[in-house]
Amino acid sequence: MRSSANQKNAEAVSPYLPARGTVEKTVAVTEKERFFSIALETPMDHTPGQFVMVGLPGYGEAPISISSPPSDEPRIELCVRAAGNLTRALHRLNPGDTVWIRGPFGKGFPAREMEGKDIIFIAGGIGLAPMRSLIKTVIGRKKAFGSLTLLYGVKSPEELLFKDELGIWRENGMDVEITVDRPHPSWKGNVGVVTTLIGAREVDETKTVAVIVGPPVMYKYVILSLGNKKLKGTDIYLSLERRMRCGLGKCGHCQIQSVYACQEGPVFRLSDIRHLKEAI
Ligand SMILES: Cc1cc2nc3c(=O)[nH]c(=O)nc-3n(C[C@H](O)[C@H](O)[C@H](O)COP(=O)(O)OP(=O)(O)OC[C@H]3O[C@@H](n4cnc5c(N)ncnc54)[C@H](O)[C@@H]3O)c2cc1C
Ligand code: FES
């Protein structure tokens, strides 16, 4: 439970004003992705699936999902892919350096609504970063949920994120299945896109929810496969990435028709966005 002092701190911070964060630890997890532990001045009151705007003077700001579960500690964890100017500059930071953080923003995953259900997490590539916050939350209270399954697809074994944690999640009773897109000399496991892991699986559509986070191309095929398992749109949650600037519903950069992804998303129920042409 979050203490009322922490809640007060979170409420006192203006969403327009960045707060100072200090890099405590940074580790290369793959060639393209770095993990960061950022010390904050006050704890961040976030839900899994929410994001922060991470800024560096002279480079601008970028939305980055919070990868750690909610906590009373004044600290968040991020996993950042070097994609352009700002994210490459983040990769050059060392422990003790300052980053500027606004947020948390958007709507996350409603973990409470998933209680009592079997959960299938379907992650592609860096999609495991936001999903890790929810997975760690759920595993922390695993008695409240039914069976837990993670289906995780990456292009090649070198791109696997959180390798040590995948083993820990297995030890905690999660069924973790991994696939790589193409054969690789070092890989003895499944080969093929992530939908190949859904095909043979038995899913009880009366008590299962699915959570999908991955690259845009993945969504259409995963949703089709889940439809074949008779899963309803109300039981499918997905996180959509859009270009974002303000994070506050003011600039319109993240707009999908009438919906502002930074406010109403990035996490949506499939049934709430299915009718929006450009959403998926
Ligand atoms: C809600 C949300 C959560 C995100 N979470 C993460 C995360 O946890 N880790 C992470 O590494 N990245 C995440 N991203 C993507 C990240 O915001 C972009 O990679 C970042 O903005 C690139 O900034 P840049 O200045 O380094 O690159 P830029 O110079 O702005 O762009 C470099 C390249 O990245 C592409 N790009 C820029 N923004 C996006 C975007 N929003 N989606 C897809 N491609 C983009 C550009 O088209 C270009 O090809 C998230 C994006 C959103 C909207
Ligand atoms: S990012 Fe500005 S309105 Fe959503």
Short description:
With 280 residues, this protein is an alpha/beta fold. It has helices spanning 4-12, 85-91, 128-140, 163-171, 196-199, 216-228, 261-264, 270-273, and strands at residues 19-28, 33-40, 51-56, 60-65, 75-81, 98-105, 118-124, 148-154, 175-180, 190-191, 208-213, 236-239, 255-256, 259-260, 267-269.
Please specify the SSE layout and strand pairing.
Elements: H1 4-12, E1 19-28, E2 33-40, E3 51-56, E4 60-65, E5 75-81, H2 85-91, E6 98-105, E7 118-124, H3 128-140, E8 148-154, H4 163-171, E9 175-180, E10 190-191, H5 196-199, E11 208-213, H6 216-228, E12 236-239, E13 255-256, E14 259-260, H7 261-264, E15 267-269, H8 270-273
Parallel strand pairs: 7-8, 7-11, 8-9, 9-10, 11-12
Antiparallel strand pairs: 1-2, 1-6, 2-5, 3-4, 3-6, 12-15, 13-14
Bound molecules: flavin-adenine dinucleotide and FE2/S2 (inorganic) cluster.
DSSP strand tally: 15
Return Rg in Å: 18 Å
Q: Helix/strand-derived class?
A: alpha/beta
What's the rounded overall pLDDT mean?
A: 91
Which series of helices and strands comes N to C? HEEEEEHEEHEHEEHEHEEEHEH
- Helix run count: 8
Give the overall shape, derived from the CA principal axes.
globular
| First-last Cα distance | 36 Å
Report the helical percentage: 10-25%
Q: Quote the CATH topology of the largest domain.
A: Rossmann fold
